[in-house]
Request: fold
Amino acid sequence: MAPLLLGAVMLVAQLQLVPSRPAVVSGDEPGQPELVRKAASLQEEIQDGVAPNGSAQQLPQTIIIGVRKGGTRALLEMLSLHPDVAAAENEVHFFDWEEHYSQGLGWYLSQMPFSAPHQLTVEKTPAYFTSPKVPARVHGMNPGIRLLLILRDPSERVLSDYTQVFYNHVQKRKPYPSIEEFLVRDGRLNVDYKALNRSLYHLHMQNWLRFFPLRRIHIVDGDRLIRDPFPEIQKVERFLRLSPQINASNFYFNKTKGFYCLRDGGRDRCLHESKGRAHPQVDPRLLNKLHEYFHEPNKKFFELVGRTFDWH
Reply:
């Protein structure tokens, strides 16, 4: 019982941390005193949720905030290889869906997995990165939280975005326009296409940096994670201050699928067949337009985060 009460107290204390720099919180977001009150009211819920083995549900200490089609599922599965990580199975959409957020932190807590006191609870919802209200809301819950952001080449991410929606329609036997019909309007690149906006990383990153210092956000190179996952996961372990438990032997290349799969305690598992699908064939001239469109936004992003990526 003592560890449980200590965890509840730590939760309240965590929510009272002072942000490292001023944060502008809009009028419709709850302030720190209100969140502290809500955290205190969670103590009874935490007590009610204790399992016989001493495990309990905890608010996440780490969130994978995005980006959509950046490799978030692969990152979560790889991170779950670590014995000190407890991951929520589904995308929770607490901070970006009003019908969830309005139910409060108690509801959010109920979506988390049971974990031991020493384990790190992680959830991932890729839509968080591009949702304007989310940074303030996450900061209000825990200004000291560690955030993971996995990014891919913006042009490739756009194609993956389209491919996912295309196959969703195919499975439902519904027609879906070609990617050219989305990317081109009146002979020009259609900058109103939502998939393009999601790849303007610098705009979304600026919003997160209003509330969190860069040291709280670790950017995973999604393209490198696909080609050689182990070095990228090592960096994540260090960022999360986890002991180095994941090894190169936990990964093996599946020639049939064309990407790396996981080996955990003698059990092999790969990502769902919906992952790694072939992109549609796109006219090279249209691809060049995409690359040109993202050239300047990419430079702005590199300057913002102080590092570069091997993107077109």
